[in-house]
Amino acid sequence: MTENDGYTASELLAVMSARLLEDGQCVFAGVGIPLLAATLAQRVHAPGLTILFEGGVVGPFVVPGELPPTTNEQRCTRRANMVMGITDVLLLLQRGYVDVGFMGGAQIDRYGNLNSSFIGDPDDPKVRLPGTGGGNDISSLTQMIVAMKHEKRRFVDKVDFITSPGFLAGGTSRGDSGLVTGGMYRVVTDLAVLGFDERTRAMKIAALHPGVTAEEVRDNTGFDLPIEAQAPTTEPPRAEELAALREFDPERLYIA
Fold this sequence. Notes:
By secondary structure, the chain is of the alpha/beta class. It is built from seven helices and 13 strands. The termini are close together.
């Protein structure tokens, strides 16, 4: 998607992700698209959504036009319900108080395993990435939403390193490994919304964005990607959603 369609690919990601969040949920959001999507959901349809940041902030108020560059920045604490230590906020995950985890990644495979550690040989990687932070904790203990650009180099048959677990090797392997809660819920891209088969836990196309074909999605994926029977076409971003996004990010730091 481009400006010729009336919105950018990043705006599409934020809108489609926001629509997956429900009023009354508690969401652990990372910076960038996850933060934009969570604040958009609060503004448009989920006023009772509670946002958590890895830095220890619970229930912040994000000021339009003043998006924090990281979740450890002081702007994250404005009008927050609580500010605690990072260990304490991660303990909320273990206690079952967090419904949804929301982040991105550099690589993802057919079972939703995410890599944000390195690309290539671990002893001599081509690229070093930011690492896990709280990503492993979040993906191990919540229902996960992932937002990322849809490219073959990102959607790979096997990630170079599992930073944040999805359904591991598929089937019952996640639960068998001891991760008895959570799992991948949806992957939102600029081409489609992807879900996971209930039995095999393999990724599948759940919905296509306007003007996108299943073949286009498969051409940009490094593994076989079946399409759900009667997969719908998503509704394009509405004017109110785009207006709210652009109010939050007027300089287009995240939605360019």
